[in-house]
Amino acid sequence: MPQLDVVTFINQYVWVIGSVSSIIIISIITILPSIKKLNEIRHITGDEVVSFKKKREYSTFKKLLNY
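Request: output the structure for the sequence above.
Response:
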């Protein structure tokens, strides 16, 4: 069985490790920064919504009424 041959097994093992490592590195470099940015944006808007509900400041509504 050629799959169990030591020479071909090591070659396949090296290719798999190299391919998986490069895919992980590329995804860390490209995908994670955008996910982090989206998470920060969602966190900021979530904090604004919570602070708006706690303070009940309707400054934009008051501005509309003044016009």
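The longest helix spans residues 6-55.
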